[in-house]
Amino acid sequence: MKAECKKIGLKEAGALLLAPEHRRIALAVHTAPDGDCLGSALGLGAFLQSRGKTVFLLADDLIGAAYSFLPGIENFLRLEDYGQLEVDLLCVLDAGSLERIGKAATVKAKCYLNIDHHGQNSYFADRLYQDTKAAATGEILWELFDACGWDIDRDIATCLYTAIVTDCGFFRYGNTTPKTMRAAAALLGCGIDPAYISDSLEMKTPDSVRLLAKVLAGLSFAAEGRIAYISVPHELYDPEAQTDSFINYPRYIFGVEAAAYFKAVGPRTTRVSLRSRDLDVAAVAVGFGGGGHLRAAGCTIEEPLEQAQKKMLAALEAALKKK
Ligand code: AMP
Ligand code: MN
Ligand code: MN
Predict the structure, then answer these.
(1) Which of 128, 149, 155, 262 could join 231 in a cystine, given CB atoms 3.0 to 4.6 angstroms apart?
(2) Exposed, middle or buried by CB within 10 Å (0-12, 13-18, 19+), for 263?
(3) Ligand 1 mean position to 190 CA, how many Å?
């Protein structure tokens, strides 16, 4: 751990965010942003703005069309929009390293705050609030609002609820705890519309559904059916397509213990999503420079699709053997 990275509590995190010397605050999310990091940044950003802060929402990647319903989503900036940015405080949400936020890491800040629920952390920040038991960063933020007595309006609640349900699969995954449900119950009490949120998150373009048909035709197995995987070859890769949920198809097949989704985002760059029943796929992803949680993890392998598949399947088989 860096000597200057200090672990703090929720109230300290709240005081840091509202400190008068922190007038300009940037909130950064990880690349390939999901509902947890986007909802967390939007919810916190809306509150900080209401307290007179100048807030910059930074995402160094395309944001999926499914998130267009989130209040304030149009305010996210990409590096080309801000060039050289200097702020008083940079808060990194739902990511444990500066590498995870891509080019947003070039922003200059007097102070770095990191709020996350992942187990891996590079301890880059001056102050860190990390809770690996939280189902989502959005759950931590709800606790932050609660601990500090901050008001949650309907828009903020919509963002935080989206963050929570994204990462716990609408309360189906093993990371769901009584606290996850209490947070969601409190947010429902703020007047949000849960059906609107779940419908919006499910929405896909016709092209995304057509792509799913092609991808499922290539469903493959390894390790005598204990591993299932699907792939998007580079010729079919569409950065605008909503494909996050594709991993759910290989995942829920009888006999499958680990599922992988390979996406050739470049001719020599393959993004991998991993899911499992109880195999530690975060440990496998860390072996490729990635990370995540026990049952849901990811990494990017700088190899063409086929080589990336070979290496990852070998690593998953080795991990299954050790079980
Ligand atoms: P995904 O498969 O993209 O939905 O990611 C599953 C989990 O793994 C999420 O918690 C991600 O934050 C994490 N994750 C995905 N890719 C990476 C990566 N390259 N480095 C660290 N964590 C990752
Ligand atoms: Mn995330
Ligand atoms: Mn998360």
Answers:
(1) 262
(2) buried
(3) 30
The boundaries of the domain holding residue 220 are 206-322
- Are residues 15 and 90 both part of a single domain? yes
CA of 224 to the centre of ligand 3 (A): 32
* Separation of alpha carbons 290 and 282, rounded Å: 8
For residues 86 and 178, state if they share a domain: yes
Interval 55-76: pLDDT, tens = 999 999 999 999 999 999 999 9
As for ligand 1, residues whose beta carbon falls within 6 Å of it are 30, 32, 34, 100, 273, 290-293, 296-300
The pLDDT tens digits of the residues spanning 263-291 come to 999 999 999 999 999 999 999 999 999 99
Instruction: Calculate the alpha carbon distances from 109 to 22, 104, 105, 162, 243 in Å.
Output: 10, 11, 10, 28, 34
Domain boundary among 153, 186, 201: 201
Describe the strand order of the beta sheet including 54-58 as a list of residue ranges. Answer: 6-7, 127-130, 108-116, 86-93, 24-28, 54-58, 76-77
Q: Which two tokens stand for residue 282?
A: 């975060």
With CA atoms as reference, report the closest residue to 96 among 160, 45, 140: 140
Residues 253, 32: Cα–Cα separation, whole Å = 26
